[in-house]
Automatic annotation (TrEMBL):
<dbReference type="GO" id="GO:0005886">
    <property type="term" value="C:plasma membrane"/>
</dbReference>
<dbReference type="InterPro" id="IPR003317">
    <property type="entry name" value="Cyt-d_oxidase_su2"/>
</dbReference>
<keyword id="KW-0813">Transport</keyword>
<comment type="similarity">
    <text>Belongs to the cytochrome ubiquinol oxidase subunit 2 family.</text>
</comment>
<dbReference type="GO" id="GO:0009055">
    <property type="term" value="F:electron transfer activity"/>
</dbReference>
<keyword id="KW-0349">Heme</keyword>
<keyword id="KW-0472">Membrane</keyword>
<feature type="transmembrane region" description="Helical">
    <location>
        <begin position="6"/>
        <end position="32"/>
    </location>
</feature>
<dbReference type="Pfam" id="PF02322">
    <property type="entry name" value="Cyt_bd_oxida_II"/>
</dbReference>
<dbReference type="GO" id="GO:0046872">
    <property type="term" value="F:metal ion binding"/>
</dbReference>
<feature type="transmembrane region" description="Helical">
    <location>
        <begin position="221"/>
        <end position="242"/>
    </location>
</feature>
<feature type="transmembrane region" description="Helical">
    <location>
        <begin position="249"/>
        <end position="269"/>
    </location>
</feature>
<dbReference type="GO" id="GO:0019646">
    <property type="term" value="P:aerobic electron transport chain"/>
</dbReference>
<keyword id="KW-0408">Iron</keyword>
<keyword id="KW-0479">Metal-binding</keyword>
<protein>
    <submittedName>
        <fullName>Cytochrome d ubiquinol oxidase subunit II</fullName>
    </submittedName>
</protein>
<keyword id="KW-1003">Cell membrane</keyword>
Amino acid sequence: MDLPVLWFWIVAFLFVGYFVLDGFDFGVGMSLPLLGRDETDRRVLINTIGPVWDLNETWVIVAGASLFAAFPEWYATLFSGFYLPLLLILLALIARGVSFEYRHQRPEAAWKRRFDGMITVGSAVPALLWGVAFANIVQGVPLDAGHNYTGSVVDLLNPYALLGGVTTLLLFLTHGAVFVSLKTEGELRQRARLLATRAGAVTVVVAATFLLWTGLAFGTAWFWVFALVAAVALVGGWLANARAAERTAFTLLTITVASVVLALFSALFPEVMPASNDSANSLTIANASSSTYTLTVMSWTALIFLPLVLVYQGWTYWVFRKRVSRASIDAAAH
């Protein structure tokens, strides 16, 4: 495997990490108005991800930086052509992060409601737009000979891309609800399991439609392998959730998200930005990558530091592995 191909799959791995980890964060944020019946419930929900949400979010920074360094042409075309959607994602992430830190700074209910709304919107917008963006990348967009995007924002909101966005939104909502059931106790745990069951049923149908459409239009042999794994894991996770096997359900939902991302990258390979108007204008792994020297330095850096990051993140989740209860919130308030 040559270095550009290796870094294509490293970038894929980084996006897998981001969508798996920040994906259930988004799901918890979107579930806030659905599961939080009072202030204590909402604080429990936020506290399930409180120690880890910012660490989860750093994966997108590492993925973006790796994309910039390993495939500068891809980065330039993507971030210029998809400027508005990516800007909206950035603003939503900022609003969500600010809300986590500021909602508890004042006691007024109206103050908390405003920030809770920002958490919900700040979670739903990226969950939707990331799916729209990746679906457009797989489908291909109009590019000129200089690899510049020649379409408009409206062109990005096509039926296939919107279906991709709805798929990621529902998948993250289900994943987040399962995570809440894994991390809470009592009535909130039961409501989260019910939400995961209902959202999961819709997710199965929508995700199956999206993967089938992708496979028939752009599928490769490896795409179908990952799509099949995703489908089996999603159905298995939904059934495990219905049986209150929360750890199994969460593990299978994690496999589902990872497999969907890998399926999309497999459908894309060996291109990185297909041109829908003229294949000669497409960006590929070969013509979008950095020099061999740059990729070599990056490879040694990743070999040294990536395992350390994984160990640290795993340790963080181990430290904060216990369930969050209403009693713990009430005790902290006194």
